[in-house]
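All the exercises in this workshop are built on plain-text protein records. A record pairs a protein's sequence with a compact description of its fold. The structure tokens are whole numbers drawn from a learned vocabulary of backbone shapes. Once this layout is familiar, the rest of the handout is easier to follow. An example says more than a description, so a record of this kind follows.
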Amino acid sequence: MQQLSFLICAAALSLQAWSQVKVTEAWVRGTVPAQKSTGAFMTLNAERDVTLVEVRSEAAGRVEVHEMAMANNVMTMSAVPKLPLPAGKSVELKPGGYHLMMLELKQPLKAGDSVAITLVVEGRDGKRQDIQAVATVRPLGQ
């Protein structure tokens, strides 16, 4: 029995150590009625190299990672299938750079609301893990 308890604790600590992706400053831009998309922003810090491979939220039909970039003096936005999160380095999802696009919104998002977001990261070994985040909705003009 004692050995089983030890194995369960060791497994839990191993999973906890694997999942060290810290999410800070998570927020979502508020919307107006009938608006079907908005941006979500945050800072991600991973303790080991992982890759952001999927994002989900019950507030949206789908969520994609997007990148803003200048091309021939024109700002463009495009979806990226994966976003590397290098160990020990902050990856900022912000307006004008990498960010999350919440598409097919199920209802308007108003300032002060909270939005649950699930980030799926994948390690070099191919194992995936869900990281739960809660983002605060800020006024539309921010």
